[in-house]
Amino acid sequence: MADHPRPPEPRQTDLPPGPSDADVIRRERDRLQLVVADLSRKIKSLEEQLETATTMTEVTPVIASRPELRKTLSSLVRRVAMIVQGEKCAIMLYNPETGVLEVLPPAMGLTEDQAKAFKDQRTIKDNVAFLHVRSGVTAPLIIKRRDEDEHVVDEQCIGVIHVFNKRGAPGFNDDDMRLLEMLATQAAAVISNAQLYIKIQEEKEQLEATFQSIQSGVIVINRAGKISLVNAAARQICGVSEADVAGKPYAEVFTDGEVARLLGDAVRHDEELAREITLVTPARGERIYQAQTTLIRGENGSTQNIVAILNDISDIRNVERMKTAFVSTVSHELRTPLTSIKGFISTLLEDQEEYYDKDTRIEFYQIIDEECDRLTRLISDLLNISRIEAGRALELVLSEVNLYELCVRVCNAQQSYTTKHQVVCAVPPDLPPIIGDQDKIDQILTNLVGNAIKYSPDGGTVTVDGRDDGDSVLLSVQDEGLGIAEHHRDKIWERFHRVDDNVDSQAVSGTGIGLYLVKHLAEAHGGDVWLDWSEVGVGSRFMVRLAKVPPKQGE
Ligand code: ADP
Questions:
Q1: How far apart are CA 258 and CA 256, in angstroms?
Q2: Mean pLDDT in consecutive groups of 10 residues from the start of the chain, 555 residues
Q3: pLDDT value at residue 150
Q4: Hey, is 38 helix, strand or coil?
Q5: Do β-strands 460-469 and 421-425 pair in parallel, antiparallel, or remain unpaired?
Q6: Contact 454, 508 (CB under 8 A)
Q7: Pocket of ligand 1, candidates 492, 508, 543: which has the most ligand atoms within 8 Å of its Cβ, to mutate?
C-alpha cells in the first residue's frame, strides 16, 4: 500500500450544487437499485468463474485490450454517467510503474487523445480547459478484501472515477457524490474481478498452449466425464480428427479401444492408473504407449479432473526387443565358431594313429584359423559397439594406408571362405594412399564384403572397386545377392536391425551391428557410407567415402 496514492476524498469541483429535486433523486435511486442488482449478478457470475482462484493477489492496472472487458467498461461508464447525470465519465487506474493515474479506456465523452493526455487528478486544473470541464465529482475506487465472516481485512485504492459536467444543472450536489461513491464501490469490484478473470484467462491460455505443444498426448476430463482438453498429440495418437472436442462427453469422442477403457476405468474406480497400451492408427501404424491417469482433487478431496498422459515408448520397446534378440544371436554367433574349433581340435588330438593325411590336417588347421578370425572380428565389433554406446569416440591409430593393398588382402581373405562366389578386386593399383586407421578400414571393408557374400546365398560375383575423388577416396562393394527392399534401406544402419522379410535373409546368421559399426567407422575417418543401389533379387552396391586426411579426433 505504501506505493499507492492515498484514496482521494470524494469532492466537488467548481460551482455550488443546484437545487435538490426529491423526485428526481427518488427515481434515480430506484433505477440505481436495478443497476446495482444487475452489477451484483455480474459480480456473482465473475466470482463463480474465479472459484478456483485462491487469493486476490497484488492488483495491477488492466490493459483493456480484451473486447469483452472493453464492452463491460463501456457500459459501466455510460451507466454511471447516466445515473449521476454527467456528460463525461472516466475511470482512472493507478499505474505503479509510472506512478500516476491513467485513464482506463473507454471513457465516455472523451476523445482518445483527451483520454491519453488526461494523466492525473493532481493536474486537474490544467485539464479543466483541455477537457472542457464545467463541473465534476470524483470518487475513489477501493477494493475491499473480506474474510469468511465478511469482515474487511484489506483495503486497496486502485484509482478513481470522474464524472464531469452535470446535465441540466450548474454542478453536482451531495447526493450525486454519495451515488457516485456507491457506484465506485461496485465498479472497483467489477474491475478487480475482471483483472483477476483476465489474469486467470491468460494463464489458462498459456497452459493450453503448453499442453498443445507437448509431445506426449494429454487428455483432461472433468468430474462429469466431459472433455476439458485433448491436445494435438493426443488427437493424433487416438485418431481424433475433430479439433474442438471440449465439452463433449469423453465416451462420445473415445468410443472404443484402449484409451476409452483407460478413461472409463479411471472415472469408474476414481483411481490413478498406469498401463501399457497398443494403439493402431492409419497414420502411425502400431505404436506402444505408456498410459497414465492422474486425479486432480479439489479442496474437499473429491476428484475435479482426470488427466491422462500418453507417452510413445515404441522405440524403447523396440530397442529392448532387438537387444534381447541381439544377445541370443551373439551367443549363437560366438558358440558356432567355438563349437567348430573345439570339434576340429578334439579330432586332431584324438588322432594318435595319424588316420588323417597331411593335407586333411592342414585343411582342419585352416578351418580353425578361419573360425578364430571370425571370433576375433565379432569380438572386435562388440568392443567397438560398446565404445560407441558409452559415448566414447572411436580412437584411430593413424598411419599411411595403401588402400589398393588393403582391398586385395580383404578380397583374398574373403575369397578363402567361399567357393560359391567370385570376389573380384577391381581397385586400380595407383589408388592414392590415405591417412587412416589400417585395422578399422580393414573392418569396414571386411564387413561390407562379408555381407555381400552372406546375402548372396546363391553365389555370384562380389566386386570391390575404388577411385580418387579429390579430398577423399571412394570405395564400392557390389554383389548379385538378395538386394534390400525400399522400406528397410534406412533401417539397416540402425543397431540390431536385421531384415527378416524372407526365408533367405532369415537363414543368414548375423547380429545386426555390422552396418551400424561401418557407418561409425567411416564417419570417424571423416567419411560416410551409403547404399548406392539395390534391387530385390538382383543385388546391392554399397559406397564408402574416406577422407584422405581424417579430421582431428574429438572434432
Ligand atoms: P548382420 O549382422 O545382420 O549382417 P548388418 O548390420 O551387417 O547386420 O546388416 C544389417 C542388415 O542389412 C542385414 O541383416 C541384412 O538384412 C541387410 N544387408 C546388409 N548387407 C546386405 C547385402 N549386401 N545384401 C542384402 N542385404 C544386406
A1: 7
A2: 40 44 58 56 49 35 58 85 90 86 86 79 65 89 84 88 90 89 87 81 83 86 88 88 85 86 89 90 85 87 89 87 80 85 93 89 90 87 83 85 95 90 97 94 94 94 97 97 93 81 68 89 94 96 96 67
A3: 81
A4: helix
A5: parallel
A6: yes
A7: 492
pLDDT confidence of residue 94 = 86
- Residue 498 CA: nearest ligand 1 atom is 14
What pLDDT is attached to residue 372? 93
Ligand 1 atom with the shortest distance to the CA of 481:
24
pLDDT at res. 58: 35
Q: What is the pTM of this model?
A: 0.51
Instruction: Specify the pLDDT at position 387.
Output: 84
Amino acid making up residue 505: S
User: Cell 469468511 appears where?
Assistant: 148
Which pLDDT belongs to residue 481? 95
The beta-carbon contacts of 294-303 under 8 Å, at least 24 apart in sequence, are 295/266, 295/270, 295/271, 302/223, 303/223, 303/270
Where is 276: in which H helix or E strand? Answer: strand 274-281
Verify whether ligand 1 is closer than 6 Å to residue 450 (CB atom).
no
Helix, coil or strand: residue 540 = strand
- State the angle between helix axes of 314-350 and 358-389 in degrees (0 to 180), rounded to the nearest 10: 160
Q: Is 58 exposed, middle or buried (0-12, 13-18, 19+ CB in 10 A)?
A: exposed
Whether ligand 1 lies within 6 angstroms of the CB of 235 is answered as no
pLDDT at 408: 96
Ligand 1 pocket, residue 333 CB under 6 Å: no
Nearest CA to ligand 1 atom 8: 512
Cα-based angle 227, 229, 235 (whole degrees, multiple of 5) = 100
64 CA → ligand 1 middle, Å: 66
Q: Which residues, 6 or more positions from 349, have their beta carbon under 8 angstroms from its beta carbon?
A: none
Q: Write down the pLDDT at residue 299.
A: 80
Please confirm whether the linkage preceding 457 is cis (ω < 30° from 0): no
Residue among 159, 179, 151 at smallest CA distance from 92 = 159
Alpha helices in 85-139 (DSSP H): 112-117, 124-131
What does the DSSP 8-state code read for residue 105? S
Residue pointed to by grid coordinates 476430463: 221
Predicted pLDDT at 503:
63
Cell numbers found for residue 96: 505503479
Beta bridge partner(s), residue 249: 226
Neighbours of 273 (CB within 10 A): 17
Q: Nearest-5° angle of CA 473, CA 474, CA 477?
A: 145
